[in-house]
Specification:
Blueprint (H helix, E strand, L loop, with lengths): L28 H4 L5 H10 L6 H15 L2 H13 L4 H6 L11 H15 L7 H10 L2 H23 L18
Helix pairs in contact: 2-8, 3-4, 3-6, 3-8, 6-7, 6-8
């Protein structure tokens, strides 16, 4: 027969309250930080003329925003991608792109590269990921892709820090920042 010794620790049910209060925006850095963001807006204008396909940059922005958990950017980029003709299937499966058959070699290289830069595992981008990106992109494209990844990571962090509310974005709303 198996006996458990008496346990000196009493177990009680702990109820952790869940906040039902809606997340409140801390401040609107798009308005109050306009001058501070001038460099990022200039980078957006530069990247709008990049030889890297706009659809690929948007797909990368969506994936990086998934990794970082930026609801505002996920809302924005999913709307812009769908308006540009991206399929629901590719958006739904993007988190598992390695196992999905419907991403091109170029997209796969860009996704791996974006994930490596975003996560910086081991504080560097692995050689095999960088080398595959170099096979798929010209030097100029690789620079632009890198800048785009760095920029979306920055916007993700700003939106998360200042709790920019998701859901109200209208397709093309930020297009003025790139023209």
């Amino acid at each position: 027969m198996f006996f458990l010794p008496p346990c000196p620790i009493s177990f009680t049910t702990v109820v952790i309250p869940v906040k039902s209060k809606e997340m409140e925006q801390r401040l609107n850095f798009y308005q109050k930080g306009h001058n501070a963001l001038a460099g990022m807006y200039a980078l957006s204008q530069y990247l709008s003329k990049s030889p890297v396909e706009r659809s690929l940059l948007e797909l990368i922005h969506f994936r990086v925003s998934q990794i970082n958990g930026c609801a505002y950017c996920l809302d924005m980029h999913s709307k812009d991608l769908r308006a540009a003709g991206e399929t629901e299937q590719r958006l739904y499966v993007l988190d598992a792109w390695r196992e999905a058959p419907f991403y091109s070699d170029r997209e796969r290289a860009a996704l791996a590269y974006a994930e490596a830069i975003t996560k910086l595992t081991g504080a560097n981008v692995p050689d095999d990921v960088y080398e595959e990106a170099c096979r798929q992109f010209t030097d100029t494209e690789l620079i632009d892709l890198t800048l785009s990844i760095v920029q979306i990571n920055s916007f993700n962090r700003l939106n998360i820090t200042f709790r920019i509310k998701a859901g109200g974005y209208k397709v093309g709303e930020h297009a003025a920042l790139t023209t």
